[in-house]
Write a structure and sequence with these properties.
Order of helices and strands: HHHHHEHE
Largest sheet: 2 strands, antiparallel
Shape: flat
Number of strands: 2
Strand content: 5-15%
Radius of gyration: 18 Å
Number of helices: 6
Strand order of the largest sheet: 1-2
Structural class: mainly alpha
Helix content: 55-70%
Number of domains: 2
Length: 107
């Protein structure tokens, strides 16, 4: 069974109402931000392939590009498990993107 469609304006209204009810200050959530958040959860909990299908990305590269930060952070965690003596830190003056800003320092 396919759930009923929700228009963009309907989605915005729903998110705005939910934010007001939850007393969330500032700008209300937007549909695209919600989609990214849901997509990230699917990507983390299931797989890139499941996220691609559920988000209806025609090209798997789109999914990989949108969620590359997850792959980078998970790789850093795996390296830390294998090499517990290594630490990761941000290079001075670099951006906050994980794949560009982390390097391995040995004690």
């Amino acid at each position: 069974m396919v759930p009923p469609s929700l228009s963009t304006n309907g989605g915005r209204s729903l998110l705005k109402r939910l934010c007001e009810e939850a007393k969330i200050n500032g700008d209300y959530l937007k549909p695209h931000g919600t989609r990214l958040g849901v997509g990230e959860g699917i990507y983390r909990e299931h797989s890139a392939a499941v996220a691609q299908r559920m988000l209806r990305h025609a090209d798997p590269r789109t999914t990989s590009q949108m969620y590359a930060h997850i792959e980078a952070s998970e790789l850093a965690e795996e390296v830390a498990e294998v090499l517990p003596f290594a630490s990761f830190s941000q290079q001075p003056g670099s951006s906050s993107v994980a794949s560009d800003s982390q390097f391995c320092e040995l004690p």
